[in-house]
Structures are given as C-alpha cells and as structure tokens.
C-alpha cells in the first residue's frame, strides 16, 4: 500500500517566503508554519504529525526546517519511523524509514547539532544587536549619527526616546497588519 506524499514547510516569520521549499515535489497535502523551530509547539507541525499514517512519506526541505533542537529532531524522526512513516530531507538527500543505518543516524545527529548551534548563534547575535541599539540610544556621543528604522535621530531627551518607542511599536503593528496577523 502506497501512502500519501506529505510536505512540511517552515520559515521563521510571516514575512519570509516558502516558495523555494519543496516546489518540485508532487504532494498530496502540505503543512506550512511561519514560526521559529525553537520547539515543537508549532500548529502546523502538530497537525502534520497527527495526519501522518503508516506508509506515508513526509517531505521536508532540510533538517533545520523540521527542528533546530537535536532532541526534538531525533524524537520526531524516531517516532515517525516507528509508525512506518518515511521522512525525506531533500537538501541533505537523506531518508529515514526505520531501517537501521548507522552512518545516516550519525549524519542526522551531526546536522541536527549544527542546526541547534546555528540557532544559538542567531540568538546570541540578536541579543548583541539589541544591547548595542540600547547602548546607542543611551549614549551622549555620536547621537547625530544614530539611525533607527531609517530615521536620523538627534534628540535623546526622555520625551524623544518615548516617541521612538512609540514609532517602534507602530512599525511592529504595521508589519503585523501586512502579514495578516491583525
């Protein structure tokens, strides 16, 4: 019995495009998330996992699209393979169907560890960028060159900083509106 060809597509934010993932694969059903892969509590991932049955094949563009946590990745692959579902990672050209292959297991663990490491680096860079931005806002030197959201800012009085925070919130609301979140 041949099962369904199911696709799972993920990007980290609503502004990102999913068109390049699995574009050339004929799929019976596709699940798409536009959220971080920091954990498995993603609505479409959970719907996908609940949908899959024995004999189905789950197509994923790359390992880091499914999980950026090694434990979560191994848990998902082990559970699905145990249910008779084949998992195919296209970028890595790897498929897991429950048959033991030590080399493939090693590659999955290594690539999963790199995905987890990459997420940690991204978080670290974001934190450094935010700290630098706040540092720039609070400094008295070089405020003539302070640029935030495309505006040149020269006034660092409390009222001016409050206005800047209001502008940041407005940009977030507009981004959410454009992405269809509101």
UniProtKB/TrEMBL annotation:
SUPFAM superfamilies registered for this protein in UniProt: Resolvase-like (SSF53041)
Chain ranges of the Resolvase/invertase-type recombinase catalytic domain: 4-137
Gene3D superfamilies (alphabetical): Resolvase, N-terminal catalytic domain
Entries under InterPro entries matching the protein: Recombinase_CS, Resolv_N, Resolvase-like_N_sf, SSR_resolvase
Active site per UniProt: 12 (o-(5'-phospho-dna)-serine intermediate)
CDD domains named among the record's database cross-references: SR_ResInv
Family classification: Belongs to the site-specific recombinase resolvase family.
Name of the protein described by the UniProt record: DNA-invertase
Source organism (scientific name): Methylovulum psychrotolerans
């Amino acid at each position: 019995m041949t099962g369904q060809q199911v696709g799972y597509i993920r990007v980290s934010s609503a502004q990102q495009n999913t068109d390049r993932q699995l574009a050339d694969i004929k799929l019976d059903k596709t699940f798409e998330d536009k959220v971080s892969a920091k954990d498995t509590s993603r609505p479409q991932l959970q719907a996908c996992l609940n949908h899959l049955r024995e004999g189905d094949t789950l197509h994923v563009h790359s390992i880091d699209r499914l999980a950026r946590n090694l434990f979560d990745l191994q848990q998902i692959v082990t559970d699905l393979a145990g249910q008779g579902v084949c998992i195919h990672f296209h970028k890595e050209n790897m498929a897991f169907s429950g048959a033991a292959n030590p080399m493939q297991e090693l590659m999955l663990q290594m690539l999963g560890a790199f995905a987890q490491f990459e997420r940690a680096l991204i978080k670290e860079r974001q934190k450094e960028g935010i700290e630098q931005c706040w540092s720039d806002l609070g400094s008295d030197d070089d405020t003539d060159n302070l640029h935030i959201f495309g505006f040149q800012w020269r006034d660092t009085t409390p009222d001016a900083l409050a206005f800047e925070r209001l502008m940041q919130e407005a940009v977030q609301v507009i981004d959410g509106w454009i992405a269809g979140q509101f």
